[in-house]
Write a structure and sequence with these properties.
113 residues, single chain, mainly alpha, 0% strand, Tetratricopeptide repeat protein, TPR-like_helical_dom_sf
């Protein structure tokens, strides 16, 4: 299936409008659509990870960051100049999210005792 990058860019622009209007769920739907299609740009992944982090939805934040890493590993192999720094940034964010998740699990476990 041929994916039209112009449509994906348009989705990002529309999602930005939704975010500005406070319609976060509509923005998420558009960003997720790009993510599901493997969009080769960072905006959708950056925004989804940030939105999910702000919503304390750590599992979805981790899922999106893992997806972004897969995409940027491909971009890096294609020798696109922006690939490596963004790949490192996504890996860094994932490491922080996984750490946060482990800390939350420890707190939850200690409360159960």
């Amino acid at each position: 299936m041929e994916i039209n990058e112009n449509i994906q860019v348009e989705r990002n622009l529309k999602a930005i409008e939704f975010e500005k209007a406070g319609e976060i769920e509509k923005a998420i739907a558009l960003y997720e659509e790009n993510s599901n299609e493997g969009f080769k740009g960072n905006h959708s992944y950056d925004r989804l990870a940030t939105i999910y982090k702000n919503q304390n939805d750590i599992d979805n934040e981790i899922r999106i960051l893992e997806k972004a890493i897969l995409i940027y590993e491909v971009i890096t192999q294609e020798d696109r100049i922006e690939g490596m720094p963004k790949l490192f940034r996504f890996k860094n964010r994932l490491e922080k999210a996984l750490y946060t998740k482990s800390q939350l699990a420890k707190k939850k476990k200690s409360k159960l005792k």
